[in-house]
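haha ok so turns out i had the wrong file open the whole time. this is the CORRECT one, sorry everyone. sequence first:
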Amino acid sequence: MLSMHTNEIALPNIEGVKVRQSFLGRIFGYGTVRIEGTGVDAVVTPDIADPVGFVRAIQTAKEHVAQRFEQQRQPSLSPPPPEA
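then structure:
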């Protein structure tokens, strides 16, 4: 009762995300999500509300991380400051 077990996968390491919904889950908007990552076992959620929305949130977060990474890799296009 007082213990806790967690699994974590860093956003860049997520390779695949799958939603599983039963017929009733589709009607009432619940299901499980399986998150597969590089070098780790898959993480499966218990039944959650709006699993499709959760997957969309993961995809959006991954896109933001990838955009930030690309921005950091690109050299600045502005000219260097003038020397005094």
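The chain has two helices and four strands.
again sry for the mixup
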